[in-house]
Amino acid sequence: MDREAYSGKLFIISGPSGAGKGTICKRLIEETNVELSVSMTTRSPRPGEEEGKSYFFTTMEDFQKEIEAGGLLEYASVYGNYYGTPKQKVVEKLRAGTDIVLEIDIQGALNVKEVYPQGIFIFILPPSMAELRKRITGRGSESEDAINLRLSQTLKEVSYIDKYDYCVVNGDLDEAVARVKAIVMAEHSRVSQSIYQLIEKYKEEV
Ligand code: ADP
Ligand code: 5GP
User: Where are the domains positioned within the chain?
Assistant: First the structure.
């Protein structure tokens, strides 16, 4: 990804499986102008997941072709499946001034940081391990073994928190959503090129 200054902002949300990233992102895109980047994955669809909405479901062979064609902003192997962010759409949207959120794993987030350090990195934490287990179990989409694998990864994952700009504990959902929205607002209040342009306009008026 080139380093041109895009007017849209790129938010990257990660955190342990079951912490509530998907739930928070869904609310964020419903309640703000931020748009979600739909990832590509080699994993099978879960009940209720829609092609092109939840993910672009693909084969390993086609995923490999996409990597070779340079079409992915980042990709990673997570729990035995490949996941990646299609690059072109993200770049087009950012260039057009649209904010984008990526809901991706930590390896992927670190890869984005390498190519796009201007991104805003947000880590979602569960209020406790017991609550995390309850949420993953309650989602009902993983086997007992898959749940244990995801939980065992959590402590390793949280050790990367210092690579992130913000951290939100998802205890009460409304509060967590409000905090993520506040981060989006705060990032739009940074002193930036558009503010200098406004100040230039003041000069014309005095
Ligand atoms: P992730 O995307 O991080 O893997 P999900 O968004 O799928 O996590 O959430 C895991 C489960 O926890 C879902 O069943 C979701 O409805 C539930 N959940 C998410 N946030 C909360 C919350 N703040 N309080 C209670 N349950 C929650
Ligand atoms: P799930 O299978 O539960 O939908 O996702 C498993 C993990 O893959 C989650 O941590 C999710 O954030 C991550 N993930 C989803 N899409 C992408 C992506 O495009 N790139 C990377 N690196 N991780 C992704």
Answer: 10-37+98-205
